[in-house]
Fold this protein.
Amino acid sequence: MSDYYAPVDPEVLKRERAKARALRQSPWWKRRIADGVCHYCRRRVGHRHLTMDHLVPLGRGGRTTRGNVVPACKTCNTKKQSLVPVEWEEYLRALGALGDD
Ligand SMILES: [Zn+2]
């Protein structure tokens, strides 16, 4: 696995962000967040506190598809933005979120 990511085409980012906005309004997403549980830490924070997170970030080639978006609480989302991938994996391991899915 490489830490080098090719720059993403701004047009692609724009399109994928627009798709994410649309997906957030969809019945599918509303059902997804209805129980209010964060995908990462499994805390029940309530659907109002859940954000849509791309498992593979758009900046790393991820796309806005049902398979690539999960509900994340603000704490996890903020950590994911601020940590490098290795630190993020450590955080998940500390939560016990890896390997029991
Ligand atoms: Zn969380």
Summary: The chain has a mean pLDDT of 91. Helices lie at 10-24, 27-33, 74-82, 85-95. The chain has four helices and two strands.
